[in-house]
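Page 47, continued from p. 46.
Same chain as before, 172 aa.
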Amino acid sequence: MNWSILIPLVVGVVSAILGYLLGKLLSKNKNGNEKVLLKNKIAKLESSLRNCKESRLILETDLKLAKESSVFISFDATLAKAILGKKIKENDLKIVEGIGPKIEGLFHNFGINTWKALGETSVAKCQEVLNSGGERYKVHKPNTWPKQAKLAYEGKWQELKDWQDNLGGGKA
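Result:
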């Protein structure tokens, strides 16, 4: 028998078997670590999803409460005309004494397009809007404009008319 051929052959087969077994052992360990990492990631994502669902429920409840508590005031053009003696368009800022078409345009540039929005605007913000128009508009005094706009939004036409009758060009 020729041992010179048999010894390398046996060494090769034993090396192949050891390599196969070692590879299997290492791949199980690697896959095991990946599985643990993926399970942890899935757990974090599931926790995040639960938190999002809880937040959504809270927001939906808050929105529902806000809708139930908010009061929508409808515009009555006929009543406004009867009291003020002229046709009024809803959210026409020019109804506020002291505001003309150009000043109304300045307010629109600032996203203040409704009586409600103007009624919720501070006097300082109104002055900022006026200042944006240049020197010509800085002389106006918007002290009463938010209150007038609020009265218009609330449909308090008689109160608005009485107040405007006592104003001098929009000034208190």
